[in-house]
């Protein structure tokens, strides 16, 4: 094998394992060595248990010798520190869950485990996935492999950085307002936020339950599709999952060569003030590539999308304030010493939660409180309806919507910390997809003059996940932005 | 927003310094989300979740869950198979 093992993508590795060109132990050891060398400067991984994963790799190799031919047997993945893997710590990037060990597998983990995958490491996240930079993590900031002075995006910044830096061929992540797609764009990798209801959240630490969705990050659309295929589908443990059958998307993704016959909407509303000129240039070039591939690109209007961030910053904190009520120092995690119950709750949450989580829980409590509920929460829910209707109208004539993932490339560490509203505006192009329950894909679409990656956002109607994966694959088959590794 | 009062509702104790910093930040955020007041939402129904599932039922039958030991394993303090908390009843 001429390439280094850590360079192999997920399906490449699975194929090499299947024909016994490599062993799972060799592959896992290569990723462990690379993680040990690079993670001290990247801080993408929060936990690695080399002995345990090597034992699992040996077991996978032995199973293969015994005739086990599962396609992903022995294939390694990194997992966002928000998803329960039985026996591994799960902290959601928070001091309040330091020391917590997951007593069961999340459904997505159980499915990947059944498919033969190995879980090599846990990846850094903004605390409870609340952030766009990993700067709110109790483990400190992950650094962007393309520029160590910059953030990797967030909240799934550890997953995106790990995949970009070749610490793992693929990772699981979650996306509530852009937390898969924005870090994928910032780190030059590929990320899918599946349709709401397509992938189970059972065993995923809850942030905002009407918006949260679990999805994959990898270097190619093929690898993202391979993971999606395993994790998608009905789960009795998550009542929001759909009973619709999961299509076999991989053949179409592999065969995608053009965009003929497809109409792609280009929202005029996204090319406005606030969109960085370099990112705009890269996005427009990617749109031109889509035209050359045969797509009919038409201008569309999403007049309420500009209200998406404000809407989100009422609804998501409201849901978070309810979801995070469970961290009370009684059943799991950290407990502050106290004389009485009230003091125990208040001190536990005060010392256990970081500043961003407190900000959002207090904001969410306020917008749900008596006298303010209708003015904020109910109004935001109605505006959510208007945002959905915009998309419904556009999808009457368009197969998908394309545009930038983020208004800028990766920003400097510390640059937006002092101003929460500026940080929140980074999700302006991704958040509406969550509010409307749609699917969205981020694929690398070039580099700014200073060498930072940018992403093309492909958003589709609910349950058109396979379609946007095919569009992304056709684009990727015609470009090589996703192939270039960062120099680290 | 009365930050100390709302923080109390959320069971979060704030230092005076924290409360002061949050006051400014939360006022900024509320001013920002105030742009939603521009829109006329008369007659618009609310979306609570953008899903195509509604009530989901299952048979009311016992299922295997976590063992008592596994359920208690993450707790800060337990005694005789139960969670321990500060005394509530006088």
Biggest interface, chains and residues, is:
A-B, 73 and 51 residues
Question: What is the fold named in CATH at topology level of the domain at 1-41 in chain B?
Answer: Histone, subunit A
The major β-sheet of chain A equals:
11 strands, mixed
Note the quaternary state here.
Answer: heterodimer
Radius of gyration of chain A: 21 Å
Quick one: overall form of chain B? flat
Structure summary, number of beta strands of chain A: 11
Average per-residue pLDDT of chain B, rounded, comes to 93
Radius of gyration of chain B: 22 Å
Number of strands of chain B: 2
Element order of chain B: H for helix, E for strand: HHHEE
Which stretches of chain B are low in confidence, meaning pLDDT under 50 for 5 or more residues running? none
Query: Major beta sheet of chain B, specifics?
Result: 2 strands, antiparallel
CATH class of the domain at 5-253 in chain A: Alpha Beta
The CATH class label of the domain at 1-41 in chain B is Mainly Alpha
Question: How many helices of chain A in DSSP terms?
Answer: 16
**Widest sheet of chain A: strand order?**
1-3-2-4-6-5-10-11-9-7-8
Helix content of chain B: 25-40%
Task: Give the distance, in angstroms, between the N- and C-terminal Cα atoms of chain B.
Answer: 34 Å
């Amino acid at each position: 094998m001429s390439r280094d093992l850590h360079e192999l993508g997920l399906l490449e590795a699975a194929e090499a394992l299947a024909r016994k060109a490599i062993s799972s132990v060799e592959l896992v050891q290569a990723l462990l060595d690379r993680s040990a060398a690079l993670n001290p400067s990247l801080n993408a991984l929060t936990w690695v248990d080399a002995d345990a994963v090597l034992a699992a790799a040996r077991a996978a190799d032995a199973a293969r010798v015994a005739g086990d031919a599962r396609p992903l047997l022995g294939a390694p993945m990194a997992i966002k520190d928000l998803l329960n893997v039985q026996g591994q710590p799960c902290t959601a990037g928070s001091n309040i869950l330091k020391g917590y060990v997951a007593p069961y597998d999340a459904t997505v983990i159980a499915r990947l485990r059944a498919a033969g995958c190995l879980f090599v490491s846990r990846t850094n996240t903004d605390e409870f996935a609340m952030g766009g930079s990993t700067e709110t993590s109790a483990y400190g900031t992950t650094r962007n492999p393309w520029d160590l002075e910059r953030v990797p995006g967030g909240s799934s910044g550890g997953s995106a950085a790990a995949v970009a830096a070749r610490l793992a061929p693929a990772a699981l992540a979650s996306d509530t307002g852009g937390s898969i797609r924005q870090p994928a764009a910032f780190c030059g990798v590929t990320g899918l936020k599946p349709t709401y209801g397509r992938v189970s959240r059972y065993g995923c630490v809850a942030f905002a339950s009407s918006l949260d969705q679990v999805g994959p990050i990898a270097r190619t659309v093929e690898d993202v599709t391979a993971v999606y295929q395993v994790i998608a589908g009905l789960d009795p443990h998550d009542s929001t999952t759909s009973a619709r059958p999961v299509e076999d998307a991989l053949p179409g993704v592999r065969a995608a060569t053009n965009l003929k016959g497809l109409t792609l909407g280009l929202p005029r509303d996204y090319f406005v003030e606030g969109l960085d000129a370099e990112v705009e240039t890269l996005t427009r070039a990617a749109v031109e590539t889509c035209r050359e591939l045969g797509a009919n690109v038409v201008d569309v209007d999403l007049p309420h999308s500009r209200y998406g961030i404000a809407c989100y910053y009422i609804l998501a904190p409201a849901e978070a304030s309810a979801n995070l009520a469970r961290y009370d120092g009684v059943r799991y995690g950290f407990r502050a010493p106290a004389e009485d119950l009230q003091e125990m709750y208040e001190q536990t949450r005060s010392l256990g939660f970081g500043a961003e989580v407190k900000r959002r829980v207090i904001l969410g409590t306020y917008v749900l409180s008596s006298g303010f509920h209708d003015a904020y929460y109910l109004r935001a829910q109605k505006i959510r309806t208007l945002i959905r209707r915009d998309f419904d109208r556009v999808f009457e004539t368009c197969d998908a919507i394309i545009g930038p993932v983020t208004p800028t490339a990766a920003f400097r560490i510390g640059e937006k910390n002092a101003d929460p509203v500026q940080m929140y505006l980074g999700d302006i192009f991704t958040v509406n997809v969550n509010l409307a329950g749609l699917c969205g894909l981020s694929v690398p679409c070039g580099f700014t003059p200073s060498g930072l990656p940018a992403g093309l956002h492909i958003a589709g109607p609910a349950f058109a996940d396979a379609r946007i994966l095919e569009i992304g694959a056709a684009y990727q088959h015609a470009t090589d932005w996703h192939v270039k590794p960062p120099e680290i | 927003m009365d930050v100390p009062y709302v923080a109390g509702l959320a069971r979060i104790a704030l230092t005076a310094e924290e409360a002061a910093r949050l006051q400014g930040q939360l006022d900024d955020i509320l001013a920002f989300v105030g742009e939603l007041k521009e829109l006329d939402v008369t007659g618009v129904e609310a979306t609570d979740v953008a899903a195509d599932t509604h009530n989901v039922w299952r048979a009311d039958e016992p299922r295997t869950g976590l063992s008592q030991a596994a359920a208690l394993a993450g707790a800060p303090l337990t005694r005789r198979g139960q969670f321990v908390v500060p005394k509530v009843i006088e």
